[in-house]
């Protein structure tokens, strides 16, 4: 049901964008006084009443689907976003380089071997690090 509602919502949204872009602005009537063509396709009043009705209908459908999707999302959620943000603190990343780690082979009961520390990064300019 939710998937169908999302599909209808997206289609109505795209249709609403298209129908609004088809409408002309308030200053577009000035061009008709200087020899603009007549709009006989939509009758004597022009496309205004038809486009207004289509725009109003699609806006109402858009609002209804928006409210329905918000209601469904609120019913499916387990809690507030803010309550989860307080509970789940992000891990603090250390800026200290890791020390040598002990490696214990599986099945071994002897003392663990110490792994070598990672090699130091090479310096630029051909210089060797001082020891």
From TrEMBL:
A Pfam family: SecG
Keyword terms: Cell membrane, Membrane, Protein transport, Translocation, Transmembrane, Transmembrane helix, Transport
Subcellular location: Cell membrane
Lineage top rank: taxon: Bacteria
Transmembrane segments: 51-74
InterPro entries: SecG (IPR004692)
Chain spans, region Disordered: 82-131
UniProt biased composition (Low complexity): 122-131
Topological category with respect to the lipid bilayer: Multi-pass membrane protein
Function: Involved in protein export. Participates in an early event of protein translocation.
PANTHER family, per the entry: PROTEIN-EXPORT MEMBRANE PROTEIN SECG
Family label: Belongs to the SecG family.
Protein name: Protein-export membrane protein SecG
Organism in which the protein naturally occurs: Desulfofustis limnaeus
């Amino acid at each position: 049901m939710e998937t169908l509602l999302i599909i209808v919502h997206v289609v109505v949204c795209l249709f609403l964008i298209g129908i609004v872009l088809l409408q002309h602005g308030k200053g577009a009537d000035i061009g008709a006084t200087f020899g603009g063509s007549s709009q006989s396709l939509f009758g004597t009043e022009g496309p205004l009443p038809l486009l207004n009705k289509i725009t109003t209908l699609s806006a109402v459908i858009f609002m209804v689907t928006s409210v329905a999707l918000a209601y469904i999302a609120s019913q499916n959620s387990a809690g507030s976003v803010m309550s989860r943000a307080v509970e789940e603190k992000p891990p603090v990343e250390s800026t200290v380089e890791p020390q040598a780690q002990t490696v214990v082979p599986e099945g071994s009961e002897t003392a663990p071997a110490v792994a070598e520390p990672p090699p130091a990064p090479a310096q630029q300019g051909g210089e060797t690090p001082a020891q």
